[in-house]
Amino acid sequence: MDVKFINPFIQSVVRVFETMVHVKMSVGKPYLKSEDHSAADVSGIIGFSGDAAGAVVISFSTDVACKSASQFAGITIDPQHPDFADAIGELANMVAGNAKKEFTDLNIKISLPSVVIGKQFTVSNSRTAPRIVIPCKCELGDIYVEVAMEVMRNPATGTPKTAAVGA
Amino acid sequence: MKVMLVDDSRTIRNIQKNVLAQLGHTDIMEAGDGVEALKLLEHDTPSLVLIDWNMPNMDGITLVRKIREKNKTLPLIMCTTEAQKDRVIEAIKAGVNNYVVKPFNVESLAEKIAQTMNKVGSAAAPAAAQ
Ligand SMILES: [Mg+2]
């Protein structure tokens, strides 16, 4: 597995949660995920376009999502709160945006966040690249960052490249 | 001093509002995208605008350019997760006075706001004396 694609996401999730959620994150060993659906209760999703295609997904249990959103916003947020999806989406946005800056040779655009509440959704594009799961742990509980990213252009030559994250 | 917050995340606007309240600024205008912000600016001129980059309808860089077409001096701070060097340069070329990268801590945001207002204040002083 090519860690150079995954490390920016590890650094980013640690930085975002430390700065905005005020928790220390410990990161476990990333692994390949074979199934293309998610069993998480709550997921914040950001898509990539431009020189890379794919998505980053941050998944939580409902409990950990509420705690994370609450500590981020500084108020108590439950799934019925109007800012619940907003907070989860913005956390995903910051994780994607901060990871992106490490890919200095590539012009990557990130999408607006989408938030899925409920188990068993299928991440689109998931067949185009292997999905790497970064398991994270903090005092609020477990958080999973899934990355599927395929570089669409060789930064040096501008020619299409088929290498994917983790390939 | 009136401050306008432009970000599609209400959570971020609330955090920014808390920081501004700590600095003594409680007169706040809010917009969720560039289009909404331009509409508000037709009727009201704040002393400072914080602008997110990635938003629906009209993004922050377009908003900065639109504001600068009409107003060269209104202090603008980009507050965004876009952190790549070329984006920062693009924003400065478009006319922002300062740049805050998300995630930010409360202290760094407060400092950038104070820094921006000081710079603007000292730049305006000699002109006012003439
Ligand atoms: Mg945004």
Which key phrases capture this entry?
heterodimer; A: 167 residues; alpha+beta; Chemotaxis protein chec; eight-stranded antiparallel beta sheet; 32% strand; B: 130 residues; alpha/beta; Rossmann fold; five-stranded parallel beta sheet; 5 helices; 18% strand; binds magnesium ion
Précis, in short:
The complex is a heterodimer of chains A (about 170) and B (about 130). Helices cover about 30% and strands about 30% of the residues of chain A. Chain A has three helices and ten strands.
Written account of the structure:
In chain A, the strands form two sheets. In chain A, strands 1, 2, 4, 5, 6, 7, 9 and 10 form an eight-stranded antiparallel sheet that branches. Chain A has one domain (3-151): 3-Layer(aba) Sandwich (Chemotaxis protein chec), CATH 3.40.1550. Chain A contains three helices and ten strands. In chain A, β4 (42-50) and β5 form a beta hairpin. Chain A has helices spanning 3-21, 62-73, 84-100, and strands at residues 26-27, 31-33, 37-38, 42-50, 52-60, 108-110, 114-117, 121-122, 131-138, 141-151. By secondary structure, chain A is α+β, with helices and mostly antiparallel strands. With 130 residues, chain B is α/β, with parallel strands linked by helices. The mean pLDDT of chain B is 93. Helix content of chain B is 52%, strand content 18%. Chain B has a five-stranded parallel sheet, with helices on both faces. Chain B has helices spanning 10-22, 34-43, 60-70, 85-94, 106-129, and strands at 2-6, 27-31, 48-51, 76-80, 98-101. In chain B, β4, α4 and β5 (98-101) form a beta-alpha-beta unit. The complex binds magnesium ion (MG). The site of magnesium ion has 6 residues of chain B, from loops.
